[in-house]
Amino acid sequence: MMKLVEYSTEFSFTELVKKIVRDEIKKEKSNQFEQALGETWTLDEFRKNCCFNKDREWVKLFIFAQFKDEIELGKPGGWLKPSKGKGSPYGVYAVEARKWMQANRNRIDWNAKLPRG
After folding, report:
1. Is residue 86 left, alpha or beta, with left meaning phi > 0 and alpha meaning psi from -120 to 50?
2. Statement: the pTM of the whole predicted model exceeds 0.90
3. Of 57, 59, 68, 90, which is least surrounded by CB within 10 A?
4. Residue 79, C-beta contacts closer than 8 angstroms, at least 6 positions apart
5. How far apart are CA 25 and CA 95, in angstroms?
6. Separation between Cα atoms, residue 86 and residue 39, nearest integer Å
7. HEC string of 2-22?
8. In sequence order, what E strands does 12-95 have?
9. Cα gap 58→109, rounded to integer Å
10. pLDDT value at position 20?
């Protein structure tokens, strides 16, 4: 009779642990989704999260300038608020930027070199 109680307790404990883990994973995914909605990035956050930490000038030239007609706010699916000059920061809508970068990663020349000058 003792073996049955031990097995039952062990089974219940295992099931409880599985349920807790599932609930925590579900909660974490939900929190990540909620945090991402409306999240904005600076240029530096964008390049660290989506561009292998490429140089700021590289990102501006090979992504922002190259795909300007697709990614600027006001365009369908646009996610970039460009800088208006010195002291005006770039703004990036994270959710849309992630989606666009995922869908277009093969169009970007990741080996491109900045012009020397």
Report:
1. beta
2. no
3. 57
4. 71, 73, 92, 93, 95, 96, 97, 100
5. 20
6. 24
7. HHHHHHHHHHHHHHHHHHHHH
8. 40-41, 80-81, 91-93
9. 11
10. 81
